[in-house]
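Dear support,

We are seeing what looks like truncated structure output for some complexes. This example has two components. We would appreciate it if you could run it in full and send us the complete token output so we can diff it against ours.
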Amino acid sequence: MPKISLPRYDDIILAAERLQGFITHTPVLTNTEINEALGCEIFFKCENLQKSGAFKYRGASNALLALAEHERKAGVFTVSSGNHGAALGYAGARLGVSVTVAVPSNAPAIKRNNIEASGATIVTIEPGMEAREQFATQRAETGEQFIPPYDHPDIIAGQGTATLELLKQVDNLDAVITPLGGGGLLAGACLAAQDIKVFGAEPALANDGFESLQSGIRQPAKPPRSICDGLLTQLGALNFEILQRHLSGLFVVEDRDTKAALEVIWQRLKIIVEPSSAIALAALKQEQTKFAGKRVGIILSGGNIAAEPSQPLQV
Amino acid sequence: MPKISLPRYDDIILAAERLQGFITHTPVLTNTEINEALGCEIFFKCENLQKSGAFKYRGASNALLALAEHERKAGVFTVSSGNHGAALGYAGARLGVSVTVAVPSNAPAIKRNNIEASGATIVTIEPGMEAREQFATQRAETGEQFIPPYDHPDIIAGQGTATLELLKQVDNLDAVITPLGGGGLLAGACLAAQDIKVFGAEPALANDGFESLQSGIRQPAKPPRSICDGLLTQLGALNFEILQRHLSGLFVVEDRDTKAALEVIWQRLKIIVEPSSAIALAALKQEQTKFAGKRVGIILSGGNIAAEPSQPLQV
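Here is the complete output from our reference environment:
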């Protein structure tokens, strides 16, 4: 594969222009009780309220909008167990681009349903990197473009617009924390934030990113075990390079702490986020002393999880 | 009781100025799939994301901010099974006003807990209007001000700021729909909306408002049975007068339709609302042909309901 050049700040500005009117300008929420409990000011960027239910719509849309007319006509495909597939499906439906998504057989039902609802064509494959790569290689022969979930300059630039928007909505942030899975969101945040510190949060059970940054060599994905089903993939190669250059720190978080953070967000902020979103708040709590008195942005990455009232509603 | 003059549009403007920086400027959400399904454009004003978890914080804060210094020092009390009590508690804590809330013994646990968390002092009373009135009469002897949940000019004006804000956030609305319980939110909407049509939504099992408007005589509350636990009170006297003059229509909604609307909001908008909020969307669906092609604002009144993932998170 030829060496792909890393995206830069300017690419995020360009992506933000392309996405104007296409994506939802998601709100930023704050909560006095959470701030008091953690001793800092937190600004939650609600990408769970983004179209398709996740920030992934930014990158997927940017990638499709960047295609030439003949490429759009040929259609695109991807491999995704969740939010990227749905995001690409919804963006494709809007632009009239045919989208095929290979979905691993162990994908959460709600995410598979969301991909189906987007209008994308689903192909079921075995779980794991091998089946993904095999599918991608075969499918590329059809002439369709492969739009990968995270390791692609247009995807990274698109995801970076979430942080760019946050910085326009909130003055004088000291830091931004995002979840880390494949690294598109976090790498995009690193590029968008410029002088502001950016931190990542990664599940302890899927800490290949942490080990990659420690060792300087990109590590394979771990067996998929964390409740953060969106963060189980291997850190992408481009993203790894960007994180090596720009990341201020990566926090490894236990699932039980992510679960507690999820409950706080649901109960206090009154919004539905998936565990992969809540990990960033769990990381902040874990590193509370580090962020004492600071103004911290948290990107809530997605909300694709089934929810119901704790008590049945009597009708 | 001396005749209290009805609040007017100017009172809402004044309330909005008072509340500047005190309340949350809540976001407005839209959803393409819901719009397509219902054949109109819906703008959801997210008062579930308001401080204290409900629009009630607007009226409670406005009422406390309107008090003279010596009145604030004397403290206030109210009777509330839910969101008004918590709202008054939180507003009181912020302004250093002592707040006592009489809570009926049948109040939902989450709402009672929310009142407790606000810092208010709780007194448990029997359910029903009689116990409420008895408590209010006795407590008034202490010199504390009674801040009623809805039938008060400052409360109505405060609640009206939700609609005022919505009209600034969204151009060219054709109509606004709000839930109807005691009538503070709906009466406030009527005053704020001026030339725009305002509709109410009321549970079929608690339709004293509908019967009052039909008969021209304010009817007593019905036995509390609907899943819309925030909408079980009697329509207030001031609110009744305002609705008689300004309301464009009132829709009576079955609980099963409210429950379905609740699920749509949770799943599609990714926000947690209580049944009393969802009734407005259920009413819109019921009256779909009436609103075809229109731009409709819906005030999502509150989000104080316990929620959990449908599938347990495996940690």
